[in-house]
Amino acid sequence: MASNKLNVSEFPDAFADKRAETGIGHMDDQNDPVDMVLRLKDLRKAAHNAATFQSGAKPGRIVIPSEVAIRETRQIPFEVDPPEHKGYRDLVDPWFKRPLEKNYRERLQAIIDETIDTALAADSVDVVSEFALPLQSKALTLLLNTPMDKAQTWIDWGTHVFRSEDSDLDGDKASILYDYIDEEIDKAIASPGEDLYSVLLASEVNGKRLTKEEVKGVMILTFAGGRDTVINAVTNTIAYFSENISDLKRIKDEPEIVNRAVEELIRYFAPLTQMGRVATEDAVVCEHAVKADTRISLCWASANRDEKTFADANKVDFDRKVNPHVSFGFSHHNCLGATHARQILRQLVVSLAERVESFEALQADENIEQLGEFSRKVGFNSLQMRFSAK
Predict the structure, then answer these.
(1) Neighbours of 311 (CB within 10 A)
(2) Which of these, 41, 158, 166, 341, is most buried using a 10 Å CB contact count?
(3) For position 225, what pLDDT does the model report?
(4) Residue 390, class by beta-carbon neighbours within 10 Å (0-12 exposed, 13-18 middle, 19+ buried)?
């Protein structure tokens, strides 16, 4: 008799064959082709070479799919190259390291506990829209240092900032975010507080006060950069544990492995597939010619499965000793929100291990990215799951 059990924890390596054959993939993005760098060594080299492969191109162009059609504001410090990048990064880094503080962690734990309570009390929940999205949105209030009631507005936007059912790039939906940020900046100008908007407005970089447009650039990055990625990471982690409950029990019995486990889950799932750069001159990547003013992709998801670095790369291994994954980027533009994302996942998996006996996947709709010659599972559009308490 056939089993009706869903298999939701597997995330196949879409790039294995091409990575082994040539190290380069190709995709078209709105008539702006992209050469995809698939091997870890080549990716790290290109990411470190900001002079040849720049981030500070036309705003929105290094994102894949390109956002040049839906925004003109430069995301900061994401779309700024060295040496200017350093001044912005030095300004915002201390703020984004706050998740390590005791008070922050305690407030985050209360959000996680409430989210798990809700899931355990329900017959079932959609882990995407009813667990990961509220958790991400409420945690964002801590990162911005704004009132918790703001989170409901962000939850109502849905799981994607720029994407709708009809389009991967929905300009009208993006405008909702941009208008919201403009309004919040104006409120902070009129009545400064201790939130991130106010802190940025009162700050200087390289001896100059940040402009409203620069503050908006930081805030767009904060909202957009940490939304889908955190939602994917949380959802995919629960999907994994639903079929590998012994690994969750290990975290309860061996708390010393928590950090290793989180890094391994982040490597395996790679919540963001890739990020682009624009060539400033003719160059060569992995023996492939790259023309000036064309784009390359730093394909994090492929590099994280590179067999030359990761033994048994397609296996989740909480005992992996060497794990130089690039899920949070590499070099100058390593992810600004990495500390925040790691802290959410650390506290979440510990709490799940203490409180949840099992998960049962009831219905799943996979989110498959179409990337030229590749099709990659990045997460789920929906994942209906039953949580059982210990």
Answers:
(1) 11
(2) 341
(3) 87
(4) exposed
Instruction: State the amino acid at position 42 in one-letter form.
Output: D
Range of the domain at 210: 16-389
Q: What is the CATH number of the domain that holds 29?
A: 1.10.630.10
In a domain, 332, yes or no: yes
In the predicted structure, residue 316 carries a pLDDT above the cut 80: yes
Between the alpha carbon of residue 136 and those of residues 315, 331, 335, the distances in Å are 27, 26, 16
The DSSP bridge pattern shows strands 208-209 and 125-126 to be unpaired
Residue at token pair 């391994």? 264
CA distances from 85 to 32, 67, 88, 379 (A): 26, 21, 6, 31
Residue 166 has pLDDT above 80, yes or no: no
Q: Which amino acid is at 157?
A: W
Please spell the DSSP secondary structure of 241-258, one letter per residue.
HHH-HHHHHHHHH-GGGH
SS3 of residue 74 by DSSP: coil
- Note the pLDDT of residue 174: 81
Mean pLDDT value of segment 64-81: 94
Indicate the DSSP class of residue 128: I
Q: What tens digit of pLDDT does each residue of 241-280 get? A: 999 999 999 999 999 999 999 999 999 999 999 999 999 9
- The pLDDT value given to residue 344: 98
Q: What is the pLDDT of residues 293-302, one digit of tens each?
A: 999 999 999 9
Phi, psi at 383, each rounded to 5°: -150, 100
Q: What is the pLDDT of residues 102-127, one digit of tens each?
A: 999 999 999 999 999 999 999 999 99
Count of other CB atoms within 10 angstroms of residue 66: 19
Among 90, 80, 77, 91, which residue's Cα sits nearest to residue 50? 80
Residue type, 132: A
Q: What is the per-residue pLDDT for 206?
A: 87
Q: Is 90 strand, coil or helix?
A: helix
Q: Which two tokens stand for residue 175?
A: 């405008």
Task: Give the integer Cα–Cα distance in Å for 308 and 40.
Answer: 9
Q: What is the pTM of this model?
A: 0.95
Q: Which of 205, 153, 262 is nearest to 144 (CA)?
A: 153
Domain count, the chain: 1
3-state secondary structure 315-346: CCCCCCCCCCCCCCCCHHHCCCCHHHHHHHHH
Question: What whole-number distance in Å separates Cα of residue 192 and Cα of residue 86?
Answer: 26
